[in-house]
């Protein structure tokens, strides 16, 4: 430590003490060259004193700042109460509507001429409706010929039966031998075979005649008709028209193979399938396949069989009807198909739809917003605000999550969780609710 003192005498004595006061105070006579140096040392001491005085107020300001930090106001946060509802665990994918049955109508005759076309392009037809009539003159003539042949052979059969009876009578009187009876019996048996062949020929001719009238094998909608009266057609010709079943209708889609185990476990019961059609002005686009959650009536995608409007698109309810027997090794997906009632023709073959396959339902599940979750290593937690407005962290377990809400364990229904401002909250710190702050701010200036 360096102590400096400047005497008030005219001779101005300087005392230098590194550790303790000097016992001798030199004068100008003792140290002739000391007077100029004394002024330099005095100036240095003065500068040091000023520097120390400047440091003092700075320490005071730091203490004031620390005191201010200790009295920081509560952080303003937004909270949302945890809700309870039934959550549907489901898989979402994009699919394509397909007819469950499609038939290409072709003539079965080797060659025929179209006589009449009784169907229009795009016509709805019931099962068994008459579509096309072919020229049937040749088939009718063939049927008449087969029937005439059958009639002739039946006459021959009747004559043989009479001959057999007469021969037996003569044999009983021993006018003829038994071999004569056997001969007539053999002729009769052969004629019975001829009659059977004739009857088969008649049936064949009847079938050929029936094939000149083409009927729809199912109820559906016709495509474009490709023939007109007078056209020559055959079994190898292009289809006359295509009939597609519209009600019920199918939807094919694929899901990742990671969903297969859960899908097979849930397959013990009929699995609900919901299809959502693009709304007016909405451009179809592929939807990412993956799990999702929805609630009863509150989640996205629940619809009814009549087609309800939600988010600009109609929804239809159906059931899963088919799971492919192999995983596509190229894409790592499994092909599925669902069946939907389609009385209003809301689904059209080839149309893009978004589908949701419900695997199971979590009854009375507690949900919190996705924004409330805080990741701490492998744990997830939320900040719960109690009645005392103290924020406490709570570890939760995710049961199922997708979208804006997550079903969790570890939170009771109605508990308030922080969704905004949690980055400014410390465990156990007092918080201020955003709604209360906004109300206070609104009521304050309005006097």
Automatic annotation (TrEMBL):
GO terms for cellular component: efflux pump complex. Residues 143-212 form the Multidrug resistance protein MdtA-like alpha-helical hairpin domain. It holds the Pfam family Beta-barrel_RND. Gene3D superfamilies: 2.40.30.170, 2.40.420.20, 2.40.50.100, Helix hairpin bin. Residues 296-306 have a biased composition (Gly residues). One of its GO terms (molecular function) is efflux transmembrane transporter activity. The keyword Cell inner membrane applies. Residues 276-295 have a biased composition (Low complexity). Keywords: Cell inner membrane, Cell membrane, Membrane. Its main location: membrane. Residues 276-316 are annotated as: Disordered. InterPro entries: MdtA-like_b-barrel, MdtA-like_BSH, MdtA-like_HH, RND_pump_MFP. SUPFAM superfamilies: HlyD-like secretion proteins (SSF111369). Residues 316-359 form the Multidrug resistance protein MdtA-like beta-barrel domain. It is found in: Cell membrane. The keyword Hydrolase does not apply. Residues 101-239 form the Multidrug resistance protein MdtA-like barrel-sandwich hybrid domain. Belongs to the membrane fusion protein (MFP) (TC 8.A.1) family. This is RND family efflux transporter MFP subunit.
